[in-house]
Write a structure and sequence with these properties.
Elements (H helix, E strand, L loop, with lengths): L1 E6 L2 E6 L10 H19 L5 E6 L2 E6 L4 H20 L3 E5 L2
Parallel strand pairs: 1-5
Antiparallel strand pairs: 1-2, 2-4, 3-4
Length: 97
């Protein structure tokens, strides 16, 4: 199961969907693509400074200041994650700190 946790200055994406064998799991691929694109967008488009940790099954994104562009990108990412969660099992939202 993929666990998604958000707070005012942090996003965690942890785990795997386990909906198919490794390398064939479209849920994991979709969440990974959205999340990695979010990181690049926050850095390149929103020009935000991030602390990031990206490992298989474990992504943490942290920031000190969130600008309007960054908020729009995060909101768009969240809509995408919610849409995937509606269509496929394997994503669980947990309270951020």
């Amino acid at each position: 199961m993929i666990k998604v946790s958000m707070s005012l200055n942090r996003i965690y994406v942890l785990g795997h969907a386990n909906s198919a064998p490794r390398g064939l799991d479209i849920v994991c691929a979709a969440v990974s693509a959205l999340t990695l694109t979010l990181i690049q967008g926050l850095k390149s488009i929103a020009l935000m400074e991030l602390q990031e940790n990206v490992e298989p099954g474990n992504v943490c994104i942290e920031w000190q200041t969130l600008n309007d562009t960054g908020k729009a990108l995060i909101d768009t990412w969240f809509l995408g994650i919610c849409r995937i969660a509606e269509e496929y099992q394997g994503i669980h939202f947990i309270n951020g700190d």
